[in-house]
Amino acid sequence: MALDPFSRPLVPPRTFDQLVVGERFPCPARTLTDAHFSAFQALSGDNHPIHYDRPYCAAQGHRDLLAHGLMVLALTAAGAGLFPHVIAEKLVGFTEVRAKFLKAVYPGDTLYPLLEISALDRQRTTGVVTMTATVDNQDGVRVLEGTHAYLVRL
User: Which end of the chain, N or C, is more open, meaning fewer C-beta atoms within 10 Å of its C-beta?
Assistant: First the structure.
C-alpha cells in the first residue's frame, strides 16, 4: 500500500529534550500591501484613520499608512514556520506573548520574522519553550521584538 504523501511529516518530529537554545525558526517574509492593511482592518475592526487615511497620516508625520501593530505581530505566528512541525503532536498550546513595537511599518515594507529558542524550561510532564520573536524590515531595521511561550508534552 502506497503512503499518502500528505500523511508524512514535513520534518522529522523531535522531543522537547532534542530542542536547543539558540535554534532559529524563520517565518516567511512578507511585503505588505494596501490589501493586507484593508484585510486586517476588516478582521480586527480597528478602523483608526492612521491605518487607512493617507492625509491624516501625513498630518501626523507619517510618510504613509501605519501598519496595525497586531498585524505585524501576527507575522511571527509559529505556524507559518517549521516549529510546530518539529514538535508535531507534542504541542499543547501557545501560552504567552509579549511584544514591543519599535519602528513604524508602512505599505511596501518587506518584513522578516524570526523565532529563536531563548529558554527551555523542563517541568514534570511538560516543558515550556520560550522564543525570542523579532521582525526586521528590508533595511535590516528591527521593527518588533518580543517573546512567545509554548507548552509542549515531554
Answer: N
